[in-house]
Design brief:
single chain; alpha/beta; Metallo-beta-lactamase, Chain A; 2 domains; eight-stranded mixed beta sheet; five-stranded mixed beta sheet; globular
């Protein structure tokens, strides 16, 4: 069992304090982070990620409660551009007239230029993975104020923080780290719940896992990213999915994940296990062929059997209700 970060709920909008200047808000399956001290005021805070589509109203209410009525962020920083992290980004950027920052390799996916690679529903073994072909994969429209993160590794309006390129889950994925207190916002480079499982997502049982399998398209890069983050020895680790964890047990859990990544995180087989998707600054270049998957045929067979049973029972009931002719 990993150490839970001691948190305090702040306000009716569902914000939880992680530290004095970092809070998070859970949106169904994903977390959104608010950096800045309470009451900081207009242009004195930063939003990290932008949740699912339809999240804007709740994020705005959370910002108003924490920083003051009509307090706009100085920036929106994206760990990456998957649908559950950019759902409200354009609406918020336009409403607040706020610039959006992401890694250069992530820009094609949030500036209408390229879709992400297809997910792999055969890995992970849970309902979230099986439903992944239904998730939007872009191209997404982040608005007219999308910019590349500074090349020096610094984060706009977040003094003392730096961004670290942690690809694998997506080409331009970044994690955010503050050296002073070893506070890590890891995005989906690793997560603290088994994101492939709907039951685990609902229960939020604290467990350190590799990146969500169904959307990870380069497993060699993902392993290197986890190794780099484990080497930072974070005191507190906040991820895109799951509860924040901290302390010695959580650090050891992250080290164990890094040491055993090939066995603990990488699927036995899968579309991107055999070879990664290829991309560049313009977006997606190529993807490997899908692996054989009998699950849709099995489910079609199950559905056909179920339909037959229902039809049979209806016929039996119909026969039983016929009037007796004398």
């Amino acid at each position: 069992m990993h150490d839970m970060v001691e948190m305090a709920k702040a306000g009716e909008a569902g914000l939880w304090d992680i530290t004095r200047d970092l809070a998070f808000q859970r949106h169904a399956i994903v977390n959104v982070f608010f950096y800045g001290t309470p009451g900081a005021g207009d242009r004195s805070w930063v939003l990290i990620d932008a949740g699912l589509p339809g999240s804007a109203g709740r994020i705005i209410r959370g910002a108003a409660e924490r920083f003051g009525e009509h307090a706009r962020p100085a920036a929106i920083v994206l760990t990456h551009g998957h649908f559950d992290h950019v759902g409200a980004v354009r609406e918020l950027s336009e409403r607040w007239n706020t610039p959006v920052y992401a890694h250069p390799l992530e820009l094609p996916y949030i500036t209408r230029r390229s879709p992400y690679p297809p997910p792999d529903p055969t890995v992970g073994g849970g309902a979230m993975a099986r439903m992944s072909p239904l998730y939007p994969r872009g191209p997404f429209d982040g608005g007219d104020e999308v910019h590349a993160l500074p090349s020096n590794g610094m984060l706009p309006h977040m003094p003392g923080w730096r961004w670290i390129h942690t690809p694998g889950h997506s080409p331009g994925h970044v994690s955010l780290f503050r050296d002073a207190d070893r506070l890590l916002v890891a995005g989906d480079a690793f997560v603290t719940t088994k994101q492939e499982s709907a039951i685990a997502v609902l229960s939020q049982r604290p467990e350190i896992h590799g990146p969500p399998k169904y959307y990870t398209t380069d497993w060699v890069a993902a392993r290197r990213s986890v190794e780099a983050l484990a080497a930072l020895e974070p005191e507190i680790m906040a991820t895109g999915h799951g509860r924040p964890l901290g302390g010695p047990a959580a650090r050891e859990g992250l080290r164990e994940l890094a040491r055993g990544f090939q066995w603990e995180a990488v699927p036995m087989d899968g579309r991107y296990v055999r070879e990664p998707a290829m991309s560049d600054e313009q977006g997606l270049l190529s993807v490997p062929p899908p692996v054989p998957d009998d699950f849709p045929k099995v489910m079609l067979g199950v559905a056909a059997v179920a339909a037959g049973v229902v039809a049979y029972r209806r016929r039996r009931r119909a026969v039983g209700l016929r009037p007796i002719r004398g």
